[in-house]
Write a structure and sequence with these properties.
Distance between the termini: 190 Å
Helix content: 10-25%
Strand order of the largest sheet: 17-25-24-19-20-21
CATH class of the domain at 197-292: Mainly Beta
Radius of gyration: 58 Å
CATH superfamily of the domain at 197-292: Immunoglobulins
CATH architecture of the domain at 197-292: Sandwich
Strand content: 25-35%
Number of strands: 25
Structural class: mainly beta
Mean pLDDT: 78
Oligomer: single chain
Low-confidence stretches: 1-16, 383-394, 406-415
Length: 415
C-alpha cells in the first residue's frame, strides 16, 4: 500500500502549466479532452476543499456540464465555474500538467447618469429578472421580474415595451445592474456611476433662478463660492445660516417642497452673484449651479474693425507713394535699335568640315573707266601673281589715270 502511494506521488505534477480561458458570464467554454486521460476534476477558485469530480470516461457527474465530441462543455459559464480543471488517469492522482484555468471576467458596460435625471436600460429578450448590487454590499435586490410584475419589495423603475426606466437618479442608485435568465445565468450587466448635475446661467440673460436638486431638506448643504474662490456656507441640513441673509438679503430662498426636498431660488440676479452654488447630500455633491456674466464684445469688435481699416488705408497710401518715387527716379530708356534682317549664307558642308567662318560681305572694286583715242589702244593689265591664292586678286586703282594721248577732236584734226 505504501509503495502504491509513493508511485502515485511520483506521477503527480503539482505545478500549473496549462492554459487559461478568459470568458464573459453566459458564454460557452470547452475543455478539450487529453489523450490517455479519462477523468476531469475541478478545483474552484479560492477554495481550499477537495477537488470535484466533473466527469469520467462515460458520464457527466456534475450539473451544468455536458459532453460534446468527446470534450467537456460548459454551455453557460457563471462565477461558480471559475477555477482549475485537471485531467487524470486511473493509475494516477490528479495531474496538473494538462490543466485548464477558467477565468470569468467582468464584462459589464460603463454608464454615467446625472443626479436627478432618469436612467434607461434595454431589456434583453432572454432576460427574466433585473438584479441590483453595490460594491459595499453583497445583497441582491430584484428591481424587475418578468414573472412577478407586482414585485413591491425591491421594485425600482418601470418597464415599457423593451425598456426599463428609473426616474430621479440619486447616489443610492449607483451600482451594478444585471439582467439574468430564470436559471440565474447572466445575460448582460451595466455599471452605473452617478455624478453631480450641472446648471449654467448668465446674469445678463436671466433675473430669476429656480432649481430643485432633489435633496432632502434634512440632508442638504448649500455653499456659495464667489468669483474670488471664497466659500460661504448658507444652508446646513434644514437650517439657513445668517450668512445667507447678509449676502443676499431676501433675494435668496431655501425652502422645502411638498415632498420635503430642497428648493433653491434667487431673485434679482446681478454681477455680484457671479460664482457657483454647490448643493450636497449625505453621499456627496448633487448639484452645481454656475452663474456667469457675459462680456459685451460689440464695442471692442467695432473698434477693432475701424482700427484695422485705418491701418490698411495707411499701408495702401505708403505703397502708392513709394511706387511713384521709384517710377520718377528710374532712368529714361533709349529707343530700340533699327531692325536689321539676318543675312543667310548657303554652303555645301562636307561631312567632317569644320564650322564655317564668320560671314564677311564681299568688297566690290570697280575698274576705272579708261578714255582713249583711236590709234592708242589700252595697255594690258598685269596678271595676278601665282602666289596670290586660288582666286583672282583685287585690282587696286591706279594713282593717276594714264595719258590718253592726242584727244580726238573731230574731222579738223586730220587735215
Amino acid at each position: 500500500m505504501d509503495l502504491f502511494i509513493i508511485l502515485c506521488l511520483l506521477f503527480v505534477d503539482e505545478g500549473f502549466s496549462g492554459t487559461t480561458q478568459d470568458v464573459c458570464p453566459g458564454q460557452p467554454v470547452t475543455i478539450r479532452k487529453v489523450t490517455n486521460y479519462y477523468d476531469l476534476f475541478f478545483e474552484p477558485r479560492g477554495s481550499s476543499g477537495p477537488e470535484r469530480h466533473v466527469a469520467n470516461r462515460t458520464h457527466i457527474l456534475l450539473p451544468s456540464y455536458q459532453f460534446k465530441d468527446g470534450d467537456v462543455l460548459i454551455p453557460e459559464v457563471t462565477q461558480q465555474h471559475a477555477g482549475y480543471y485537471f485531467w487524470s488517469t486511473p493509475t494516477t492522482l490528479v495531474s496538473r500538467s494538462q490543466s485548464v484555468e477558467v477565468y470569468v471576467k467582468a464584462c459589464a458596460k460603463e454608464r454615467e447618469a446625472y443626479y436627478g435625471n432618469e436612467f434607461i436600460l434595454e431589456v434583453p429578450k432572454k432576460a427574466s429578472i433585473l438584479e441590483f448590487t453595490t460594491e459595499q454590499s453583497t445583497d441582491r435586490r430584484v428591481l424587475w421580474s418578468r414573472i412577478n410584475t407586482d414585485n413591491k419589495r425591491g421594485a425600482r423603475g418601470t418597464v415599457t415595451g423593451d425598456r426599463w426606466k428609473a426616474a430621479k437618479i440619486t447616489y443610492p442608485d449607483d451600482g451594478r445592474y444585471t439582467f439574468r435568465k430564470e436559471n440565474g445565468v447572466e445575460v448582460s450587466s451595466t455599471n452605473l456611476y452617478v455624478r453631480e448635475n450641472l446648471e449654467y446661467y448668465d446674469v445678463r440673460d436671466v433675473s430669476y433662478l429656480e432649481s430643485k436638486p432633489l435633496v432632502p431638506m434634512n440632508e442638504a448643504e448649500v455653499t456659495f463660492i464667489d468669483s474670488s474662490q471664497m466659500e460661504y456656507l448658507l444652508f446646513y441640513r434644514g437650517s439657513q445660516l445668517d450668512r445667507a441673509f447678509q449676502m443676499f438679503q431676501d433675494r435668496l430662498r431655501l425652502q422645502p417642497s411638498p415632498s420635503g426636498q430642497l428648493e433653491l431660488s434667487i431673485m434679482g440676479l446681478k454681477s455680484s452673484d457671479v460664482g457657483r452654488f454647490e448643493v450636497k447630500d449625505r453621499k456627496g455633491l448633487a448639484l452645481v449651479i454656475w452663474l456667469s456674466e457675459r462680456v459685451d464684445m460689440t464695442v471692442p469688435i467695432a473698434a477693432g474693425v475701424v482700427g484695422g481699416l485705418v491701418i490698411l488705408t495707411l499701408i495702401i497710401c505708403c505703397c502708392v507713394m513709394r511706387s511713384r518715387k521709384k517710377r520718377d527716379a528710374a532712368p529714361v530708356a533709349s529707343p530700340p535699335p533699327e531692325y536689321q534682317p539676318p543675312i543667310h549664307q548657303h554652303r555645301d558642308a562636307a561631312p567632317d568640315a569644320s564650322p564655317p567662318p564668320v560671314y564677311q560681305p564681299p568688297v566690290y572694286v570697280h575698274d576705272p573707266v579708261v578714255i582713249y583715242a583711236p590709234g592708242c589702244p589700252p595697255q594690258p593689265q598685269p596678271a595676278a601673281s601665282a602666289g596670290g591664292g586660288g582666286g583672282g586678286g583685287i585690282h587696286p586703282a591706279p594713282s593717276a589715270p594714264p595719258d590718253p594721248g592726242t584727244q580726238y577732236g573731230g574731222q579738223g584734226d586730220f587735215s
